[in-house]
Specification:
With 373 residues, the protein is α/β, with parallel strands linked by helices. Helix content is 37%, strand content 20%. The strands form 5 sheets. An 8-stranded mixed β-sheet has the order 8-7-9-10-14-15-6-16, with helices on both faces. The two termini are 25 Å apart. 44% of the residues are buried.
Length: 373
């Protein structure tokens, strides 16, 4: 994966010295697992099925009991706490995730092996990163914290290869990936003087939801989450993310999200507070991990029903409700779209036909305009 001129990571072919036969096999394998081409919705036996959240065995609201992990992690620090606990107890040898690069404007794949490296990677990174580019994701004794699309690709790769041990997959609700250019522009906007050396970039965390924060020798320079995400980063999201059927990590063992407080209209309130993570258990392995972490006090929380999480995630539910219509609009405009298997998109669309028609028409109009550029 390489950073393209538009600020997004794109797959590239490089000559690794393999024979043409081996190279063709690698391309076929890539095509079989790439979430830009196809994504499936798993339906494990015994799971509850929620139309917008997918299949799950249990739902929880949790937070890390370690105050520093809760404070520095996104939402309640659940993924930070689990990453530290899995490695320090020897349940896994490493956790591969994402974190800041030595050049802090960038985000890279990082390896977590203890509490300190888990804290160093804590917090969201709203920028392109190829977590699965790290070859350690396929090594025995590995857990991975990855975007939902990467979770799908990794799970599918284990199916395609057959002899590959599926790593523990942890994920999070994802609204989409903004362009790297958006981070660069926002950092430059917050610098007190052009050309100041940037020593750190934090998108969230150190509070809930936490500010976008740029660190320099002169101190920290901030913008609140509502403006940094809503006005600067979010609008640069790539097209593939806007038509994603799985922003909720259906292929993971455990998937975390913000368990927001909401206003009277059901929209999240972004006032600072103590973070809480919603957690969906997708697999039996995920259930065992969660309950072991609860039993030893790594996490604290209470069980929920899935609808409680859906109610505080209106962005995810709205996207899935309108996705079938948006995909149809894009197809009518001649724009290729991914294949989604097992998602109840048509059933959701027909519940609100007028809304679906407007979504289809808007997607058709935007897709045609984009093709003419």
């Amino acid at each position: 994966m390489a950073l393209a001129r538009d600020g997004f990571l794109r797959p590239v072919r490089r000559d690794g010295g393999a024979s043409p036969v081996d190279d063709d096999a690698a391309v076929r394998e890539f095509a079989a697992v790439c979430p830009g081409r196809a994504v499936s919705s798993p339906c494990p036996e015994g799971a509850e099925r929620h139309p917008q959240l997918g299949s799950y065995l249990e739902a929880w609201a949790v937070h890390a009991t370690d105050p520093e992990q809760q404070h520095r992690g996104a939402s309640g620090g659940a993924l930070t706490a689990l990453s530290a606990w899995l490695t320090t107890t020897g349940r896994v040898n490493r956790v591969v995730g994402a974190g800041p690069a030595p050049a802090p404007r960038r985000t890279v794949s990082v390896t977590i092996t203890d509490r300190e490296t888990a804290l160093a990677a804590a917090g969201s990174r709203y920028a392109p990163v190829a977590t699965l580019a790290d070859p350690q994701v396929l090594a025995a004794g590995t857990a991975v914290v990855a975007k939902p699309c990467e979770a799908s690709a990794l799970s599918r790769l284990a199916e395609v290869r057959g002899d590959l041990e599926r790593p523990i997959i942890l994920s999070f609700f994802c609204a989409g990936t903004p362009s790297q250019s958006a981070t660069d522009d926002l950092v430059d906007e917050l610098l007190p003087e052009p050309g100041d050396e940037v020593v750190s970039v934090r998108y969230r965390g150190c509070g809930w939801p936490g500010d976008f924060t740029v660190g320099t020798a002169a101190g920290e320079h901030r913008m609140d989450y509502r403006r940094s995400w809503g006005d600067r980063l979010g609008p640069t999201m790539q097209w593939r993310c806007k038509i994603c059927a799985d922003g909720v990590g259906e292929s993971a063992d455990l998937v975390a999200c913000d368990y927001w407080e909401v206003d009277a209209q059901g929209y999240p309130v972004f006032e600072e507070g103590d973070g809480r993570s919603g957690l969906l258990v997708r697999t039996e392995r995920g259930r065992e991990i969660l309950h072991a972490a609860l039993d030893v006090g790594v996490l604290r929380g209470e069980p929920l029903d899935g609808e409680s999480i859906a109610r505080v995630q209106p962005g995810q539910t709205w996207r899935r409700d309108n996705l079938w219509a948006r995909l149809l609009g894009a197809r009518l405009a001649g724009v290729p779209v991914p294949v989604y298997r097992g998602f109840p998109l048509f059933r959701l669309a027909v519940r609100r036909p007028r809304q679906s028609f407007r979504a289809m028409k808007g997607a058709w109009r935007r897709a045609r305009a984009a093709r003419k550029k």
